[in-house]
Design goal:
With about 140 residues, this protein is mostly beta strands. It has helices spanning about 50-60, 105-110, 110-115, and strands at about 1-10, 15-20, 20-25, 30, 45, 70-75, 85-90, 90-100, 125-130, 130-135, 140. A seven-stranded mixed barrel has the order 1-6-5-9-8-7-11. The protein has a three-stranded antiparallel sheet with strand order 4-3-10, with no helix packed on it. Helix 1 links the parallel strand 5 (about 45) and strand 6.
Length: about 140
């Protein structure tokens, strides 16, 4: 079992990441109020332990918000989870694949883009299968 640690949405593509304590997930759409809607990349998720490991490796202190993912989870290893179901509170998300880091990550910290490419460090992207209201502190589990 894991825990949902943080939630972010962005109002526009390349826009700032707004931190929230709750969010509503809509099946086949994504997060209400987030710029990315529909398609296969409805929600992006990063593992807190993996982020912290990379920060230590790089000698960096960047906030995980800078990864530009929607959700930060603790206690769930996201590596090689393609096709798995991830439950967050009442919602269910199908992990579609690994999120590949873009060149913007090197703007956060030199070498971060390359570091995120290993062992699914960039996290995953998912489709919402069952919607619902989620909140920081919700239980997270892989099925």
């Amino acid at each position: 079992m894991g825990e949902l640690r943080r939630i972010w949405t962005k109002r526009a593509h390349r826009g700032p990441m707004d931190e929230r304590s709750t969010a509503t997930l809509i099946a086949r759409r994504g997060i209400v109020g987030n710029a990315d809607q529909g398609g296969k990349r409805q929600v992006t998720i990063v593992d807190e332990a993996r982020w912290n490991e990379l920060m230590e490796q790089l000698g960096a202190d960047a906030d995980p918000r800078e990864r530009r993912a929607n959700l930060l989870v603790r206690g769930i290893d996201l590596m090689d989870t393609r096709g798995r179901l991830l439950r967050i509170g009442p919602a269910a998300l199908r992990i579609v694949g690994e999120t590949r880091p873009c060149e913007r990550m090197d703007e956060v910290w030199p070498g971060l883009q390359e570091a995120l490419r290993h062992r699914w460090g960039g996290g995953v992207f998912a489709e919402v299968i069952e919607g619902g209201d989620i909140a920081v502190g919700d239980l997270v589990r892989l099925e």
